[in-house]
Amino acid sequence: MRIDLHTHSTASDGTDTPAQLVRNAAAAGLDVVALTDHDTTRGHAEAVAALAELDRGLTLVTGAELSCRLDGVGLHMLAYLFDPDEPELARERELVRDDRVPRAKTMVGKLRELGVPVTWEQVARIAGDGSVGRPHIAEALVELGVVPTVSDAFTPDWLADGGRAYAGKHELDPFDAIRLVKAAGGVTVFAHPAAVKRGQVVPEGAIAALAAAGLDGIEADHMDHAPETRTRLHGLAADLGLLVTGSSDYHGSRKTCVLGEFTTDPEIYGEITRRATGAFPVPGAGGRPSA
After folding, report:
1. How far apart (Å, rounded) are the C-alpha atoms in residues 240 and 212?
2. Whole-number mean pLDDT of the chain?
3. Cα distance between residue 164 and residue 174, in whole Å
4. Rounded to whole angstroms, what are the CA distances from 94 to 40, 41, 85, 122, 131?
5. Cα separation of 214 and 140, whole Å?
6. DSSP 8-state class, residue 172
7. HSE of 169 in the Cβ direction (CA atoms, 13 Å)?
8. Do 248 and 7 contact (CB within 8 A), yes or no?
9. How far is 123 from 143, CA to CA, in rounded Å?
10. What is the DSSP string of 18-53?
11. 183-193: per-residue pLDDT in tens?
């Protein structure tokens, strides 16, 4: 089984629609794919509908990537198979989403003060119906020739945490995120916890505290982790009794990663599905739930 538990669609900052993502996951030979858009479940229905059109079995895991902050450091919490209608978690996701537009407009204003001729209209066009975020602003900078790639926009000079054009938004305390996801029957995995190229990361002591609070796992196998970092995180997970996942963090053409670039062990996936009570994996045409 090939299992990719971290992907994005146009419902947030990917370039594939949810239906395209499902089709591309099947074409890439995946058996299981998780749709984990930022702070939203809006793409789930379209992705589920697309499963019926496939000519091979593919199982969809519903989820989201929650924006969190701990002691001033931003981090992302992957939440899997939670009840999307659970009111407290739904309210927090809505608060984060509602803050994205004013935050993006503030960042556009800061860029203009730095002499970059970016406009809100340009960013809104790039975001389309998606939940607007820094990758959309980064793509605007690429269009304007300010930086060569989206990744090059995530530096202190531009959009990285604390960067010249950075602006904050409403974010969850990760301990609250764990509590809320668990109350909604879901499973939590700390996304790319040591991705230092993205900016400051939380210390390993914080990961231990999150584990004690009920964190289920860490995403160790990720393109932003060097081989030695992946090895270290596997050891940390073993010490803390955490599950270890691997995934692509696929964003379509917005990033260089490809579907299935890193994958999750089937036994780990099975444990995630056993722990979840809020929702269940959705089998596609000709397939059965891969659990």
Report:
1. 8
2. 95
3. 26
4. 8, 11, 12, 24, 11
5. 39
6. B
7. 25
8. yes
9. 10
10. HHHHHHHHHHTT-SEEEE--BT--TTHHHHHHHHTT
11. 999 999 999 99
